[in-house]
Amino acid sequence: MASALDVLCPMHVTLDPEGRMTHAGPTLCKLRPGRPLIGQPFLDLARVLRPSPAPDMAGLLGLAGARLRLELRDPPRTTLSGVLMPDGQGGALVNLAFGISIIEAVRDYTLTNEDFAPTDLAVEMLFLVEAKSSAMEMLRQMSLRFQGERLAAEERALTDTLTGLRNRRALDAVLERIASAAQPFAVMHIDLDFFKAVNDTLGHAAGDQVLQRAAAIMSDVTRGEDTVARIGGDEFVIVLDRLNDRHRIEDIALRLIRRLEDPMSFGDRRCRISASAGTAISTDYTRPDPARMLCDADAALYAAKHAGRGCHAFHQPAQDGARLAGGAGAGP
């Protein structure tokens, strides 16, 4: 009979009239390896939580037929469900199961299919849990991959492929954000002088290398919070965040121009360029408008070119009034 119960109820235990364990199923023994169970009081192994505590064998017999909730006394304190039936000789048979603790039990005791009764639905539940876990992990990995691909695609959409700088789309987003933050900022428009001569004499490969070197210099000269963008050809825009001090802006512009005037190597040839720059500052406007500031920075850039190239100019708000007055006085 004991061997049959070991197969049909591998978590069972039989008790004598004093409540001592006279036989324990193989799975129950596996929960406490190295600890002798036979001859020990069952209530030293586990305590009854529900429907009511049982201090002794009489208390256990009083719970016959009820659905029991028990907890192993020693760590890990696995909770068990069970049912007790008297054996007609003063003892009892207690059949135990893991119930909702099965996941933790499999983890804590390294259980396998052989530790459960052939008719126990726990095996099927474990399979479903494992399948669900595998599916969830697969979905998580796919989600991470798709998120990474989405972020990479968004980054590519905002990046100039040749120089690695921000592109015009990214620049517009930065200007919109920074203008709405009510913080001072400056927009510097930069055009490379003599770049066309490099392309015409040394070819587009040399021109691409010059653009990449110029981009690296601009990133090096500016601060981490600034935005450097290539908006087309040899034109660049730098957004100087939280900066409206003309001396500091002038210093950045002149350092940039000096760095760009250093000869650049292309094979055994030397490329020489310079740069002209124009800047508009947000605090010169009652309500800074990014499009207007870009236009004014561009006008200041061409004023720098007309002044001899290789220099920097600020947009002067007074010039706007002069242009408007000149326009009002003009007539056919």
From TrEMBL:
InterPro entries according to UniProt: DGC-Regulatory_Protein (IPR052163), GGDEF_dom (IPR000160), HNOB_dom_associated_sf (IPR042463), Nucleotide_cyclase (IPR029787), Rev_trsase/Diguanyl_cyclase (IPR043128)
User: What range(s) does the GGDEF domain occupy?
Assistant: 183-317
Q: Which domain of life is it from?
A: Bacteria
Classification via NCBIfam families:
GGDEF
Name of the protein in question: Diguanylate cyclase
